[in-house]
Amino acid sequence: MCERLANQGLRVIVAGLDMDFMGKPFGPMPQLLAIADYITKVHAICMHCGDLANHSFRTVPDNALIMLGEKESYIPLCRGCFVAAMEKQPTVG
Fold it and tell me: Is 72 inside any structural domain?
């Protein structure tokens, strides 16, 4: 639908997470990123080191791919802190 609208000359704006809580490509976002004319990524600040964060780290034990939550369930982490935190967690899946 996004591509069809863009092909008709309409400006299409899409917002969403590009990775899931495990750091894997999420839903339709990889395809949308591939066909986008312009991409603007917005980053939070890593809760551990203060660098730019590009990962949403899940802090509660739940393996569901989609889980609604805010500060009680997720924290923003940079790549290095995300990898370190994932290595400390039991295997998810």
Answer: yes
